[in-house]
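Wait, mind explaining this?

_____
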Amino acid sequence: MRQLLRRLAVTALLAPVAAIGATMIASPAEAALASEQTLQTEINRLVNIQRTTHGCPTLQVSAALTAAARTHSAWMGQTGTFSHTGRNNSSFTTRAKAAGYPKPSAENIAWGYRTAGAVVTGWMNSPGHRKNILNCQSKTVGVGVVHNTAGTPYYTQDFGY
């Protein structure tokens, strides 16, 4: 009887710990989304550092541009396509407007970079992408990072006036 009481006491002590641990485990999809959101946030932070260093105001994150960017990144990842032309021959302008953003200004895309710093450095070393990042007329941004089934990240950065 004494041994049974000890087992019950130990079980009672460990049950809350096990329950807490269970709530801290994310599914692979939840972990991937959290990773993508972390990358998106870090890209926005690094881009704003570049902009302020070069005399431009920071960009405000737009939910509509983020949705358009994530949708395009997902499409590129699903199809293995790397292009500014998207599903149904869409352009960044049509995608941004369809997502509810009225005045898109530019788009950057990338794939394969493993860190936010690497993708921003890549864009800053490319004259066209750099021009988009340092366009002081742009006021908003949306970044979409989506990993394909092989784990390769696809990036889209949409800017708006």
